[in-house]
Amino acid sequence: MPLLRPRPARRRARAAACVAAATLVWPSDQAAAVPAAAPALAPGPDAVERMDVDAAVAEALRHNLQLLAQTYEVPLARAEVVTARLRLNPTLSLGADHLDLLGTHYDNVNHAGPQEFFVRTDVMLRGGRKRQRRIEVAETGVVVAEQQLRDAVRRLVRDVQCACVDVQYAAAAVELAAINRELYARVIALNEIRVGTGDLARVDLTRAQIAELQARNELRQAQGAQKIAANNLALLLGRTRPAAAIFVTGEMRADAAAYSLTDIRAQALRQRPDLQAARSELRFTEFDVRRQIAEGKVDFSLGVEARRQQGLAGTGNSLGFFFVVPLRLFDRNQGQIERARQQAGQAEQRALAVEQSIRIEAENAHVDYEVARDLLRSFEGGMLAKAEQVLATAEYAYERGEAGLIELIDAQRAFNETRLTYNEARASFAKSLYVIDAVTARESPQ
User: Signal sequence span per UniProt (predicted)?
Assistant: First the structure.
């Protein structure tokens, strides 16, 4: 498109256009440093709620519904320990036999009877140390439940931190889109003056209006994405209804310390609660095998009975002792023993799978960290400044009528894309740091 040159006959019109152009405040400096404390959500019926990442994590640990449900696993496992420690109750039997309730009438002719009354108690003695085996299994189950709870906390902290970064990134995108729309609105105002004075073709005004419409749509999309990000964060926080407006204060995390793959992997294998839970579950299944073998051992009962007889020849009291042993000829708990052994093998493979998954997870986290760090350094090293310079040059030329609208739109689009990519790099780097914390279980309680 040819550059717009002022015509001598239109000097007054150009002067009026320059006055209008002087009112344009171009958004280069504003877009280069999006303020972290200004809420970017569109006004709504509810006030904007501000919180930092630490406050969001603390609220999620108190109110997240899935975590609250997970916390019940520990007292449930402890209840199993109480059950395992209980001993079997003795049995008490009361009986009456040979009672003359049918009118036979015991006498010297029929010599029926005598009537008998007895009290008997039985105690079962369990073989194979069953109680001790059950306690071992139950106590190991408590350890597994506690470690699984720690892992749930680790994953929740990671999800909340990454959700906070998403909210911050969405706020920056809305801020940039709003500045972009305001820019094109001012360009339209300037072009309307130029078209009215005949210093600009109407097609350029139409192009500016189309660009402003696109910027308005981008702003609406960015606001929708920000609302979705706020809702996702609210869900993790345990809110009972979607959040109208949540703004995460503070800058995105950008640690300067370097992280090596060796350290990340070593810390993860040493501290990860899911790996510890998998190994404890393996011990749980091994104890369960021992318990099922013990369940196949013979149990026997000891009983004592006091009996009273009342007959024609007189009355008498007697005492009896009993020893009961089941003959386990067929059912020796073979099925449950085999099931427990298969579960032990399965738990061993799961532990190996978790360990291998952690190794790959650590490597992936380190790769994401290095890529995001290098990309962010490339922007901070001059790419963003060059895009700002190109935009500033295009702005100046357009104000003077020495450049067309297409050049300005291209420069603004290039700057927007560069700034958006820069914001994505900041968000990716912040997330990579939080992911490294999660991979190494740094946020998990000890």
Answer: 1-31
